[in-house]
Design goal:
CATH topology of the largest domain: Aspartate Aminotransferase, domain 2
Strand order of the largest sheet: 1-9-8-5-4-2-3
Helix content: 25-40%
Shape: globular
Strand content: 5-15%
Largest sheet: 7 strands, mixed
CATH class of the largest domain: Alpha Beta
């Protein structure tokens, strides 16, 4: 059996090695490492894939969120509504800009922000909603956009874990995550479903004015070289990463299909166990791209299982053991004052198993047997 890993980026690379190597060498031969045709071509191809008019590439997913908030003109004292059950980057950038994160409860099935909780969290200072499409399942974007439209709020989608995920609306139309809100953000961290060989990110929008402003902000606020119209930052995707991502973009749907096949294997293995809740998909509005395969455990010691699996050589991860509202960094924003029992309940019970495009049945049999052996002892 091949060694087990949470994400096997090496084996994935080996399958497309010749294409990737040619693309990287082409950039090196061109000596155009920052910007240029390679980056522009990737942005255009990604826009076509995602159904977004504009794609602004940047250095990472965290920068994507920061540029989005800056472009919307959010100011110190403004509030943004976001889940606490998320990676810290979602809310860290709000705090960095002195914008108050207001934490809302999540749906215990999908792990995504609950639209009803958003309604309750709106105040006169609320300016935006930041739904997170966690683990590869979309938040209920139709309901969220309805709330945003009724209250005059912006929507910034955090799609760092959901690229390629389809959202179906009640009228039968379908859009990909990142192409629904006013702005969509994603990450190309190596473990993502579309992962670079380093850092990278992208921002999506259909709004011409917002696109122009975000392009400026990400390039030191420049409208043209040495002419700085707004306060910006320095955030860019280098050409080597763009070349690699452009190759991998062609395989993204294949990668998603492989993840769904792996998820189906796990689902079948755990289907009859009363201590396991397998990942839920609300097929009325979202499919699942399984960035993570995350179980909810009932009536068992999650941390003991985690340790047991590690002793058996089975990698597993707990995303996220401390929710954002309980992190010390948010004490100044009154994070601990939030009452989020579903979020707290989930953080004590979730565990993610290895999930990537190269998993085979031998590996998954070993992983699932390890989980079941512990639960049945």
């Amino acid at each position: 059996m091949r060694p087990l890993q949470m994400v096997d980026t090496k084996t994935q690379y080996q399958a497309i090695k010749e294409e990737v190597d040619r693309a990287v060498l082409s950039v090196m031969e061109s000596a155009m490492y920052i910007g240029g045709k390679t980056v522009n071509d990737f942005a255009a191809n990604l826009g076509r894939y995602n159904g977004s008019k504009h794609v602004i590439t940047c250095a990472n997913g965290t920068d994507a969120l920061q540029v989005a908030m800056m472009a919307l003109g959010l100011r110190p004292g403004d509030e943004v509504i976001t889940p606490s059950f998320t990676y810290i980057a979602t809310v860290e950038v709000a705090a960095l800009l002195h914008i108050k994160p207001v934490f809302a409860e999540v749906d215990p099935k999908t792990f995504c922000i609950d639209p009803a909780a958003i309604e309750k969290a709106i105040t006169p200072r609320t300016k935006a909603i930041i739904p997170v499409h966690l683990y590869g399942h979309a938040a209920n974007m139709e309901a969220i956009m309805d709330i945003a439209n009724r209250h005059g709020l912006f929507v910034i989608e955090d799609g760092a874990q959901s690229i390629g995920c389809d959202v179906t609306f009640s009228n039968g139309t379908t859009k990909k995550t990142g192409a629904i809100g006013h702005i969509g953000c994603t990450s190309f961290y190596p473990s993502k479903n579309l992962g670079a060989f380093g850092d990278g990110g992208a921002i999506f929008t259909d709004d011409d004015a917002l696109a122009a402003k975000m392009q400026m902000i990400a390039a030191h606020g420049q409208s043209r070289r040495y002419y700085h119209d707004v306060v910006g930052c320095n955030s860019r995707l280098d050409a080597i990463q763009a070349a690699i991502l452009d190759i991998k973009l062609k395989y993204l749907d294949h990668y998603i299909a492989a993840r769904r096949k792996a998820a189906a294997f796990y689902d079948a293995a755990f289907a009859q166990h009363d201590k396991i809740i397998t990942p839920y998909t609300d097929t009325t509005y979202s499919n699942h791209v399984y960035h993570q395969y995350t179980l909810i455990l009932k009536d068992t010691n999650r941390d003991a299982l985690h340790q047991y699996l590690a002793e058996k050589g089975i990698p597993a991860m707990i995303y996220y053991p401390v929710p954002a509202h309980r992190q010390k960094m948010f004490d100044a924003f009154g994070g601990a004052d939030h009452h989020l029992p579903v979020t707290d309940w989930l953080t004590e019970r979730v565990i993610s198993l290895p999930m990537h495009t190269e998993l085979d049945e031998e590996q998954q049999s070993f992983i699932s047997s390890g989980v079941l052996t512990f639960l049945n002892q």
